[in-house]
Amino acid sequence: MNIENNHARHRHALAGCVMFIALLLAALGTLAEDKPRPRLTDDAVITTDGYRLPLSRWLPDGEPCRVVLGLHGFNDYRETFDNLASHLSADCTAFYAYDHRGFGGTADRGHWPGRARLVNDATNVAELLRARHPGKPLYIVGESMGGAITILTLAQDYPPPVDGAVLLAPGVWTRDVQPWYMRTALWLGIRLAPGLEIPNDLVDVNPSDDPDVLEYWQSHPMVIKRSRIASLYGVANLMDAALAATDHLQQPLLVLYGGADEIIPSGATCGFLERLAQTSADWRFVYYPEGHHQLTRYSGEDQTMADISAWLQSPQAALPFDGQLSLAEARDELCDS
After folding, report:
1. pTM for this predicted structure
2. Same domain, yes or no: 173 and 79
3. Taking phi first (over 0 means left), then psi (-120 to 50 degrees means alpha), and beta for anything else, what does residue 92 get?
4. Is there a single domain that holds both residue 163 and residue 101?
5. pLDDT in tens, 191-228
6. Burial class (CB in 10 A: 0-12, 13-18, 19+), 258
7. Which uninterrupted H or E stretch holds 57?
8. Is residue 190 located within the same domain as residue 303?
9. What is the CATH number of the domain that holds 92?
């Protein structure tokens, strides 16, 4: 009798376990169904957590020959690429650019989203573009902060299927080359007043020599005019991480920098090139002596855009303008500046 009772109890326990597992699997399945799938619409990217990133597209007539994803810089937004994207779309290129979280037209404008979110979004959008344009070469163009995000995206253990990248004055101004007073101010600010907003014009630097671009930075409603200390601290961490991740880059790269850049110091770019030279990446460096930080939005923008277009068509081809420097030449030009 006891044996039969034990068997009955075991059967009931087993049935209970099976029921629990079935309910658990059903619940997990429901959660999986409720989780948004990343997707592209005509004017937005819907991310894995359901967040909406405003999207702009510049498409060629007919089937594109290649696809470019543009990642904008700090306090900027996606339409900053209009010059370059319009130029490239006339040259058989489909160009896409979205607003990073915390910038442009996103819901959390002015708030730093965190490095992981920025990289995850870039990864997801690159994968979506690859799926939308199968068989077409896919490149990233990253400007300033967008260049730092590009580096971190491509340096992952499992990077998205990108064929190469153009880095426009990449954000690699790390703490070890920043002035001591800047490091100290950030260290104190993040601890004492992370929400304090600093006017952008507190520091007299210009990203361009084009009066229209300078007016854009002063008055365009999508440009952030005051930066929270938490955001400044976040972008400083992002740049530190980008330089450290450079060791893991393997994709073809075109690095562009201007001699009149008032945002990213030449010493920071020099340090990045020294680090890049130790990798297996096939990289090329082009220097524009009169170039400003926004290399596709200044008086010499035609040179920059022609070089980018030529490189996208063939990363090994000769570039239209004679600005390419070897590492030794870049050291002479930048490292002692």
Report:
1. 0.90
2. yes
3. left
4. yes
5. 999 999 999 988 889 999 999 999 999 999 999 999 99
6. buried
7. strand 52-58
8. yes
9. 3.40.50.1820
